[in-house]
Amino acid sequence: MKTIAIVATGGTIAGTGKKGKTAAYHAGEIDIDSIIETIPEINEVAHIKEYQLMNIDSNEMTHEKWLILKNNIEEILSDDTIDGAVVTHGTDTLDETAYFLTLTLNTPKPVVLTGAMRPATATSADGPFNLYQAICLACHGESYNRGVLALFSNTIYSGRDIEKVNNFKIDAFDQRSLGCLGYMQDQEVYFYTQTSKIHTIKSRFNKRIDSIKSVAIAFYYSGADAKILYDLASDHEGIVIAGSGSGNYSQAWLKAIEELSEKGTIFVRSSRISQGIVFDDEIFDPHHLCISSNTLSPQKARVLLMLALTQTHDRDEIREIFLQY
């Protein structure tokens, strides 16, 4: 029987509220030991080691906490007796943490993120079953060297592409236009595909990281004032544009981007639309000053740019990074 570490960070899976209710609850209040006690079936699939690293609402997650999480997971998995890890996490920002760990963890061992849409005190809480399946997934031989995974509602996602697409339903996640990696039925795992993007042990970002560069997201909307770009550039080394359509914006924004790029700010074009791909565009970026996010959401493009800027400010090199990761 394999040994799996559960690294708890809080979230709705550890939340409490009025008995039976699914709304108006406090995230990150129950410790991981108490959650595990409600799932006796876990003892039939793995030996468990619990690590209560944090107990927070995921909206309190920061890049400093990401580094703490990365370093602790790597230290835990350096133990030869531990075969994999499951990270419990709030769903609001889980997609960002999953991608950060995908880019920075230096381990081939399975790391699976999961959480819940209903608090532990709700009728028919989804957290215990998600946790049970995540542990089964971490035990599975085919999970090895697939990069960071996520498990929700019988569905396996990649850490790069998972995205929260619904703030209400139990089945709240998707992978944009790419489909999932596989499915689970109870403890059974069925993989159908895997990511071709660089991750974990082959990533250029998996060494020790002491600090991360500051990157902002600028959301474009009809009539948006380009002044926001100048304000953000004053204390951020990079800006991700969440543009309309295929990463588009006004001529006023284009002028600001060109001026600020000449002064050293790195821009990435992404889309506020949840489906599709952002390619290079000679109309909205005629001088190729922006880097295209490809299939990354604005928040994930921010994660990659933050890490890229720790190593280089060369626009062409960062453009290549966005193609590879």
UniProtKB/TrEMBL annotation:
SUPFAM superfamilies per the UniProt record, alphabetical: Glutaminase/Asparaginase (SSF53774)
Positions annotated as active site in the UniProt record: T12, T91
UniProt catalytic activity: L-asparagine + H2O = L-aspartate + NH4(+)
Pfam families: Asparaginase, Asparaginase_C
E.C. no: 3.5.1.1
InterPro entries xref list: AsnASE_II, Asp/glu_Ase-like_sf, Asparaginase/glutaminase-like, Asparaginase/glutaminase_AS1, Asparaginase/glutaminase_AS2, Asparaginase_C, L-asparaginase_C, L-asparaginase_N
Keywords, comma-separated and alphabetical: Hydrolase
Domain Asparaginase/glutaminase C-terminal: 215-322
Domain L-asparaginase N-terminal residue range list: 4-194
Family of the protein in this entry: Belongs to the asparaginase 1 family.
Listed name of the protein: asparaginase
Lineage: Bacteria, Bacillati, Bacillota, Erysipelotrichia, Erysipelotrichales
